[in-house]
């Protein structure tokens, strides 16, 4: 099950009814079992505090993904996304807010499927997967 929540921001998320089953489909395509994923949309300041409190990082980020599931159990997770970062990243990446938001949403799902982005090669693979799912979502008639 996929759900969307707003912590301290209102959210404009187009195609939400098609997006939920699409995200579930990402896990199926990647051979992972999904139980529950909660996407929480928030501000920079809200996510910065989570970054400080839980990861001991003192910087802004667009996404933090927490896996809450036991090993080999179906995936349960919380994914926090800063709407402020998404808006800024869309401008710097010369893309739309909606496309950047989808990219970040898929990025969180891919992390939960086991993809990493710490090295250059890992980041390249992650970006290819994000692009693959963005194209597929658009093709399905967002």
What does this entry look like structurally?
The protein has one domain (about 1-140): Collagenase (Catalytic Domain). The model has no long low-confidence stretch (mean pLDDT about 90). Strands 1-2-4-3 form a four-stranded mixed β-sheet, with helices on both faces. About 25% of the residues are buried. The chain is α/β, with parallel strands linked by helices. Helix 4 (about 95-110) packs across helix 5 (about 120-140). It has helices at about 15-30, 45-55, 85-90, 95-110, 120-140, and strands spanning about 1-5, 35-40, 65, 75-80. The chain contains five helices and four strands. Strand 1, helix 1 (about 15-30) and strand 2 form a beta-alpha-beta unit. The chain is about 50% helix and about 20% strand. Its cofactor is Zn(2+). One of its GO terms (biological process) is rRNA processing.
Which features characterize this protein?
142 residues, alpha/beta, Collagenase (Catalytic Domain)
Please list the strands of the largest sheet in the order they lie side by side: 1-2-4-3
Ends apart, CA distance between termini: 19 Å
- Low-confidence sequence ranges: none
Question: What do the pLDDT scores average to?
Answer: 92
CATH level-4 homologous superfamily: Metalloproteases ("zincins"), catalytic domain
* Largest sheet properties: 4 strands, mixed
Task: Give the ordered list of helices and strands.
Answer: EHEHEEHHH
Number of domains in the coordinates? 1
Family: Belongs to the endoribonuclease YbeY family.
Enzyme class: hydrolase
Subcellular location: Cytoplasm
EC number: 3.1.-.-
